[in-house]
Amino acid sequence: MLNAQHLSERLMCVASYVEKGAIVADIGSDHAYLPCYLIHHQLASKAIAGEVAKGPYESAQSHVRAEQLQDKITVRLANGLKAIEIEDEVDTVTIAGMGGPLIATILDQDMNRLSTVSRLILQPNVYAKAIREWALLNDWKLIAEDILQEDDKIYEILVLEKGTMDLTPSQKLLGPFLMDKQNDVFQAKWRKESAEWKRILEAIRFAELSKEVEMKKAEVEEKLLIVKEALGE
What we know:
By secondary structure, this protein is α/β, with parallel strands linked by helices. It has 9 helices and 7 strands; from the N terminus they run αβαβαββαβαββαααα. Helix 4 packs parallel to helix 5 and helix 8 runs antiparallel to helix 9.
């Protein structure tokens, strides 16, 4: 059972990248399990739990009260990074359990609120590429990546700090650190994706070749080639 003491494997992985003593803002905090865990284990000195929806916000509030952590964790009803005030002096932001494009949008919308932040720990459920592309455009660099499987779902964790980097098309899609390690989960993910892309190409064969279909076909073929080369197949 998930609670402030027992996180899911993916959230444990997110927590492992929080530097001791950090001031953390967890955006889309749900029950505030992650902030509670970070405070209980002396990983964070203070935390903000941000929630945009009233139900999860109230749930986070009651959970923080139940754990008697009101003096260390502030729960705020706010959209994305609007949960962060400059006087909070937040240095670490965690965003877990959303799609990559949504995480990139959240970061884009209120970038001025990242002025004190030195580390982003992001766990997209899908399309991590959107975060890597956002990082390239906004002077953030990857310092670590992880990939894991939990309950038949595959999750990627991206850790970013301020700085510049260059990524090849392959690294944007697959992740530079993940490509280097190529663990079993990485290989399983991209074999499964490749099988899906092959099905799409098969369906396209019978479609009328409009400009949009041609572009989609070229995009899928490029991704297939990247994965084939990366896996050495």
